[in-house]
Write a structure and sequence with these properties.
With 242 residues, the chain is α/β, with parallel strands linked by helices. The protein is 31% helix and 24% strand.
Length: 242
């Protein structure tokens, strides 16, 4: 049986990891996958990705790194994404993974105008979402957790925008039949979101935001969290209900 990859582009901060676990654990729970079917490849640490044809699909995680730095490991992963797209492999990118997919496929990434977006945000589906296999049955608006400084400023030419927030016009993108990415974090729960706000409170104050209000606004995000499970079911990833 082919493995589902977790392409690790970073790690949760030490204090958050100690209490809540790390990205692979969150994605395993979110996608509902049996751990025996998963393979984590730490590309930021120099680990080599397998040939796309040898896997069932991949999730690309977030990171504290910046896509615009064009780190060697990141650019190698971008090349792998292009190969995986050519092979029709199911891909789900999140945050850094979202930006890296867009960059790999011809979009433009840069700093989000107006500074970071952090906290639980209202997400609005676009008109295209109603006819999409992943989002067609979702409510027109839902909540999702966010924390990012960079953004997809221009999506790839053939990408379809499925959702936005007030400040981020490209919260959910589709690239063909088998690949999507989200700027928001469907793998976060409310406690993880609160932990990130605590960690970033000094930065938020310096930038003119109120971390207390952001903390109070954190709420459950069941619709956003369901996206990972729905994607894995759609693409035949097994172990979903174990």
């Amino acid at each position: 049986m082919k493995s589902v990859l977790i392409i690790r582009t970073g790690r949760a901060p030490d204090t958050i990891r100690a209490r809540h676990g790390d990205f692979p654990h969150w994605f395993r729970l979110g996608a509902g996958l049996d751990h025996k079917l998963l393979r984590t490849v730490d590309v930021a640490a120099g680990e080599t990705l397998p040939a796309a044809k040898d896997i069932a699909g991949a999730v690309i995680t977030g990171s504290a790194a910046m896509v615009t730095d064009r780190a060697a490991w990141s650019e190698r992963t971008a090349g792998w994404i292009r190969d995986a797209m050519d092979a029709g492999i199911p891909l789900f990118g999140v945050c850094y993974g979202h930006q890296l997919m867009a960059h790999a496929l011809g979009g433009r990434v840069g700093y989000l105008p107006g500074g970071r977006e952090i906290g639980t945000q209202p997400i609005e589906l676009s008109a295209h979402a109603a006819g999409d296999a992943l989002t067609g049955k979702l409510p027109g608006s839902f909540r999702a957790h966010t924390t990012h400084e960079q953004s997809v400023l221009e999506p790839p030419r053939d990408a379809v925008v499925l959702a936005r927030s007030a400040r981020e016009p490209h919260q959910l993108l589709r690239y063909g039949a088998n690949a999507v990415s989200t700027q928001f974090h469907p793998e976060f729960n409310a406690e993880v979101m609160r932990a990130y706000i605590r960690r970033k409170h000094a930065d938020m104050r310096r930038e003119g935001a109120d971390p207390r209000l952001a903390f109070q606004a954190v709420a459950a995000t069941p619709v956003a969290r369901r996206l990972l499970r729905q994607f894995s079911r759609m693409h035949g990833w097994t172990g979903l209900d174990r």
